[in-house]
């Protein structure tokens, strides 16, 4: 039975078993490889996407739980031809090293700013603690988020 | 990863400043250089290609795994070619002799060698192309080349009027011949080297478009997962093939060397089928030890045999006789997994007469051997496409995941993507070896007079030569692979340089003590091991620099001054030590409940001193600040150096606080990030990095940030609690 989703603003119909984690649907069925597999257990945050505006670990969210939902992935974060302010800040601050965790980091940061447009340093750290970076880019992540505080509009419509 | 270690089958000289254009080795298919009219491209040398349409391609022969080669090595080319780094497109190198790491004679990225080995050849490549373009323009204008110069992708004449873009000159330049010195730019003319140029891969890595191995997608691709034995060395004796084959999407289920492969049309279906798979294992030859047995074995080996002396100065026994006091201590370090964020994976497509591999690998030429070993192909029939790596840390120097994917692809004859789970990645790793250190020092009249360090544990080359030796001789027939591997191990220290993986760092003990004896008791419990970001330096650094702290305490001296006083002949060591101490305001009072620890270690030619400020809060160790001073010679990109030292410090702190792989009856107890923890954002200390200005040749920075931070933290905890911890990971309740 097909499951319908809205992914980055597009309606998609997916024919795979409903227990398939959303991560593999996004990556292998929809070709959205920016969302990464890190642990398969919701422990590292590399697979973070937004479901109906909330950050979720797509590696441990079965497709059937996301049915009918609106999903935003790293590919849907900016506007066509234009980086999201966070992505721009990531580039300016040279955040990524190996880069593998950064899609998840950015999606966590994007949700933070959407719900709390002027977070304190402590709030940023708390919001980003679920995302592991093995290269140790943590300080630049905080600096990059702080640099766009007040720039990202709180009412920003995801995937629009 | 020191230079001579992997250079175990040494051939010829190292890097050279001479022209490397059209370099090729007899009997090896090299990179074709020259102009291709059909595509309008000029391949100036193995690294650089310019097109008539204005593109500049750089073939990057070291992989990008977060350490910054993508930016750093492109900067070297851009500096000499006189173009902006952003004007250069980067592609990852295929396997070719030109791309071998000159220190290892293998196409390896590791050992913090990339900038050090590329420093001369890549600048030479850029400068050579620039000179040829200038000569071509001079011929067009019928002037002397000395009247022309290059800037921002153009050759310009001194008259200020004539100017030609490189795109117009590439065909002509291909016909010019360089004679004599290529004329590298003097340091005073550098525009890019030494500056914090932006990371060239940051956009791709911030938009999800950078392609890692796990992202490779091919038409008709199937997915493989492998059920491996819980105990290393066990063999498959049977499994329920029929039941699993009947499951949705399952393409095949069969035995391979390391277990049972399950192949399905989708990854999740392969995983579900694997969950239904029941394998009976023959464990007669499997690993059955527990970690405690490893250390018992080490102690017995150490008692039996003090091992080979690796460095001996003065006479330690004399020092022992005349000593007024002898201090002894024993240190233990556990096995460690690598935990790259991107789990092991590889995609292999076997097509009868040839195979292609897409993989995040630190050794693409070893990847070819891995495929040859499991198919009917020879290495020359195998093409390896290297992708971005989601972390390496030494793990991807071993090609076991390519071997597995190749074995599956050979049977199913379709493109196969193999993906390991995090649990498999943690439990079937090749680990940083567990090690035991016995330290003994003599004190006479309050002075340190003797240093005795006995290192007990295995050597990594014993595990690595099996694959590396055939890769050095890719033309060797496969039946010789075993022999090449055995010769590599047996000839150690004779035909091949010595494996220093166990003793690196320890033998470089820098302190002026009259009598030194450093020994290695070689004993291998059979647990698979490999390199791990700074490997030997990581465990030796902890033992040496913790024991130095103990000796300072014994002598009633300040640990910084104690070290400093013994470094009169080591100005570079002393300078980083002084700088780190100054940066940390060593000696000034700290907030209640905090203490400082200091450590100093040279690794991979780079000197790093670190001061850690730590405390214990709510039963947990908290690291507040790390102050690091680094001397890595000339700096290509100070931002990348700082990032590497900071990242290295966090990597070391992760090991110091959490790192431990435990075996119980041969089974690894840890499995995922809940029980094999990584340092997280909320625990991140502030890291301050001071880089020493230098005219020395550049040395690596990928690993040297790791070793000193571990003892520096332990020493801080001692200063805080008065209790000395000699076993890693550190314990808040010790």
TrEMBL record, chain A:
PROSITE patterns: 2FE2S_FER_1, 2FE2S_FER_2. CDD domains: fer2 (cd00207). It comes from the Bacteria. InterPro entries: 2Fe-2S-bd, 2Fe-2S-bd_dom_sf, 2Fe-2S_ferredoxin-like_sf, 2Fe-2S_ferredoxin-type, 2Fe2S_fd_BS, Beta-grasp_dom_sf, Diverse_Oxidoreductases. Residues 1-77 form the 2Fe-2S ferredoxin-type domain. Signal peptide: none annotated. It holds the Pfam family Fer2. Keywords: 2Fe-2S, Iron, Iron-sulfur, Metal-binding, Oxidoreductase. The keyword Oxidoreductase applies. One of its GO terms (molecular function) is 2 iron, 2 sulfur cluster binding. This is Isoquinoline 1-oxidoreductase alpha subunit. It comes from Marinobacter nitratireducens.
UniProtKB/TrEMBL annotation, chain B:
PROSITE patterns: TAT. InterPro entries: Ald_Oxase/Xan_DH_a/b (IPR000674), AldOxase/xan_DH_MoCoBD1 (IPR008274), AldOxase/xan_DH_MoCoBD2 (IPR046867), AldOxase/xan_DH_Mopterin-bd_sf (IPR037165), N-heterocyclic_Hydroxylase (IPR052516), OxRdtase_Mopterin-bd_su_IorB (IPR012368), TAT_signal (IPR006311). Residues 207-285 form the Aldehyde oxidase/xanthine dehydrogenase a/b hammerhead domain. One of its GO terms (molecular function) is oxidoreductase activity. PANTHER family: ALDEHYDE DEHYDROGENASE. This is Isoquinoline 1-oxidoreductase beta subunit.
């Amino acid at each position: 039975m097909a499951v319908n989703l809205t992914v980055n603003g597009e309606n998609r119909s997916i024919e795979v078993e409903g227990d398939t984690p959303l991560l593999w649907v996004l990556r292998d069925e929809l070709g959205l490889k920016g969302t990464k597999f890190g642990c398969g257990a919701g422990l590292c945050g590399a697979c973070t996407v937004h479901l109906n505006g909330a950050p979720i670990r797509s590696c441990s969210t079965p497709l059937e739980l996301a049915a009918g939902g609106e999903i935003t992935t790293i590919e849907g974060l900016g506007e066509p031809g234009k980086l999201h302010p966070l992505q721009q800040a990531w580039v300016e601050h040279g955040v990524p090293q190996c880069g593998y965790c950064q899609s998840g980091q950015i999606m966590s940061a994007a949700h933070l700013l959407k719900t709390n447009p002027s977070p304190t340093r402590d709030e940023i750290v708390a919001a980003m603690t679920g995302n592991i970076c093995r290269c140790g880019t943590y300080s630049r992540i905080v600096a990059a988020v702080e640099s766009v505080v007040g720039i990202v509009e709180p009412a920003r419509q995801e995937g629009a | 990863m020191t230079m001579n270690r992997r250079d175990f089958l040494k051939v010829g000289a190292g890097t050279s400043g001479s022209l490397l254009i059209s370099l090729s080795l007899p009997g090896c298919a090299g990179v074709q250089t020259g102009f291709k009219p059909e595509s309008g491209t000029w391949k100036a040398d193995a690294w650089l290609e310019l097109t008539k349409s204005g593109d500049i391609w750089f073939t990057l022969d070291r992989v990008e795994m977060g350490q910054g080669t993508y930016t750093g090595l492109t900067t070297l080319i851009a500096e000499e070619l006189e173009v902006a780094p952003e004007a250069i497109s980067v592609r990852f190198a295929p396997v070719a002799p030109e791309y071998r790491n000159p220190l290892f004679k293998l196409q390896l990225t590791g050992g913090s060698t990339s900038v050090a080995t590329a420093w001369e050849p890549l600048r030479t490549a850029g400068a050579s192309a620039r000179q040829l373009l200038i000569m071509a323009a001079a011929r067009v204008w019928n002037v002397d080349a000395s009247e022309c110069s290059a800037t921002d992708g153009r050759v310009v004449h001194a008259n200020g009027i004539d100017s030609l873009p490189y795109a117009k000159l590439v065909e002509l330049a291909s016909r010019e011949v360089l004679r004599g010195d290529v004329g590298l730019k003097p340091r005073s003319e550098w525009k890019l080297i030494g500056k914090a140029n932006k990371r060239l891969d940051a956009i791709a890595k911030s938009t999800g478009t950078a392609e890692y191995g796990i992202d490779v997608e091919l038409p008709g691709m199937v997915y493989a997962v492998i059920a491996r034995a819980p105990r290393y060395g066990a063999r498959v004796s049977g499994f329920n093939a029929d039941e699993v084959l009947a499951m949705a999407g399952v393409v095949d289920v069969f035995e391979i060397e390391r277990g049972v492969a399950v192949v399905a049309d989708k990854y999740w279906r392969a995983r579900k089928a694997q969950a239904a798979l029941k394998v009976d294992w023959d464990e007669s030859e499997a690993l059955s030890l527990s970690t405690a047995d490893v250390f018992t074995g080490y102690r017995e080996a150490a008692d039996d045999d003090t091992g080979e002396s690796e460095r001996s100065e003065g006479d330690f026994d004399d020092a022992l006789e005349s000593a007024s006091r002898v201090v002894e201590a024993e240190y233990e370090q556990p096995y460690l997994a690598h935990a790259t964020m991107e789990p092991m994976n590889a995609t292999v497509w076997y097509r009868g007469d040839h195979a292609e591999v897409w993989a995040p690998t630190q050794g693409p030429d070893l990847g070819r051997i891995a495929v040859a070993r499991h198919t009917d192909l020879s290495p020359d029939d195998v093409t390896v496409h290297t992708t971005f790596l989601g972390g390496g840390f030494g793990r991807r120097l071993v090609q076991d995941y390519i071997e597995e994917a190749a074995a599956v692809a050979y049977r199913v004859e379709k493109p196969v993507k193999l993906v390991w789970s995090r649990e498999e990645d943690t439990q079937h790793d090749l680990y940083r070896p567990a090690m035991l250190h016995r330290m003994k020092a003599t004190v006479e009249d309050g002075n340190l007079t003797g240093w005795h360090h006995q290192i007990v544990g295995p050597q990594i080359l014993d595990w690595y030569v099996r694959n590396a030796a055939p890769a050095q001789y890719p033309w060797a027939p496969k039946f010789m692979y075993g022999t090449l591997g055995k010769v590599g191990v047996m000839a150690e220290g004779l035909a091949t340089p010595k494996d220093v993986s166990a003793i690196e760092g320890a033998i470089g003990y820098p302190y002026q003590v009259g009598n030194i004896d450093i020994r290695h008791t070689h004993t291998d419990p059979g647990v698979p091991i490999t390199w791990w970001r700074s490997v030997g330096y990581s465990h030796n650094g902890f033992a040496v620099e913790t024991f130095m702290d103990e000796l300072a305490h014994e002598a009633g001296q300040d640990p910084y001054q104690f070290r400093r006083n013994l470094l009169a002949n080591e100005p570079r060591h002393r300078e980083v030590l002084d700088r780190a101490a100054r940066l940390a305001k060593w000696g000034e009072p700290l907030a209640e409940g905090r203490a400082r620890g200091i450590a100093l270690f040279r690794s991979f030619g780079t000197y790093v001193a670190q001061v850690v400020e730590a405390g214990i809060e709510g039963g947990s160790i908290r690291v507040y600040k790390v102050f690091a001073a680094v001397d890595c010679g000339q700096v290509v990109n100070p931002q990348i150096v700082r990032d590497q030292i900071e990242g290295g410090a966090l990597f070391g702190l992760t090991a110091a606080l959490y790192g431990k792989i435990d075996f119980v009856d041969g089974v690894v107890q840890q499995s995922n990030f809940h029980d094999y923890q990584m340092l997280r954002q909320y625990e991140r200390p502030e890291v301050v990095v001071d880089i020493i200005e230098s005219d020395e040749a550049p040395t690596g920075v990928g690993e040297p940030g790791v070793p000193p931070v571990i003892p520096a933290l332990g020493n801080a905890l001692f200063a805080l609690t008065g209790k000395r911890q000699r076993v890693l990971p550190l314990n808040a309740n010790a």
